[in-house]
Amino acid sequence: MNRSRTVSRHAAARAGRAEAGGGKLRILFITLMYYPHVGGIESFLKFIAEKLAAMGYSITVLTGEPRVTAVRQEVINGVTVVRWPTWSPGGMYHIPRDIMAFRSYLRNSTKGYDVIHINSVHAFINTVALAALGRRPPRQRLVMSPHYISKPKPVARKILFEANALLLRALLRKVQAFIFASAYERLIFEEDFGLKGIGAITPLPLPDDVFRHEWNPPSDRVVVVMSGRMDIAQKRFDTFLRAIPLFLQELRCDGWDFPIKFKLIGTGRNEGELKAMAETLKIHDYIDFIRFLPREEYLRVISGATMYVLLSECENYGIAPREAIAMGVPTLVSCNSALAELVSYGLCIGVRHPSTPEEVAHTMTTALGTLRSASLKHRKGDLIRTWTSEYMLGRLLKIYKGISASGMGASGLPDWAAGDYRMGTEDGWAEEGRNSPSGGGGEGESENEGGGSGVGGGRDGGRDGDGDGDGGGWGHGGGSGRGWDNGLEDGGGRSYR
Asked: SS3 of 310, please?
């Protein structure tokens, strides 16, 4: 009998007996920063940690903290938070101060945890943590959510990233389970770090308050909303602004006489430049620049929009458009990175990437004409249910409990990578690769034969088909047909990056 499989079954049995006996898992999250800092990882982790604590699990967060000079510990909403001093120039890198003391702390203070879950490969604190956690108790499981976007472009940041990545490539083999937010994130992570065939895709949960709102657009005007960091290079607010006068011109030509308002929500380094651009384009009277909104008011503004727009250069998941979609708001996104997955599912409208202001304006006009009276929310209801906290927490706990002490098997896949965790599937939604973000295609009965919902066939290319999604897609499958890297037109390969 294969010894690793025997160890695997025994480890899983022990975990099962612990749960059955009333013993809850002790879970340690390690992360770059935590509440009250605001950001995608910070918000996600706070939400998950507090949910698990409320369910009776023992939760500790070990986090970097640039604003302290000594280790601090506190309890926030049932979660024990340990803050380790870090050096974070420009809010990046997150290098632990006194690295040797940090390594010693990890080796001596983490033995009692059942699961250690590291968040982000973009922080040195997590690289040091991986190095320190080489020898762990046999029952302890090591999990990572990379939250990986891509390699940075500025030269200095790229050098530091490569230095960190050089250390990580060897250390990552200690990880027993990788959890990715999207098929796109998994694909670029595998390629950039040289790891293949790893990890489950578990959509990040949307906060519960999102599902208390429904699309409620005004009947006497058009309101278009875009939100995010005011960053020209990444969020492309400048392209959106340049599209506005063209959009207004198209609407006038079509005989529209509704009042129109654009709401841009967010702050950032290019905020002043974007306001000046609005003045130059003579569209400032149409635009409300909103720096900050309380959460509940923000959701009311989004759910009350006629349309939501996001033209990001790159997103490894895309929380903001998913929130809009979950509320039923017609949504337009750049057809690239993880946003293209939303287009492939039929949940929103995609505009070619990279797009010109003319293309954005025309797509907005078309979307307005076809979507004003119909919400997309219920078209893929089963998939949207995978964005709930109940689904994600259930899936996360199933992964935690299913990881064996043996880690990766001979095939390069963890022993738990089966059933619900087949590569490229999403529970109860994508079967046999059909309509899956990276599944095997199948002949499909959806709008795109052979590739399932326009995705092509993920890694292997769609099969057969009639020219709509044959191969195509954005996996390694190439082939002809209509993929969804470049606005649902050009098949083959990964030109979306």
From this structure: strand
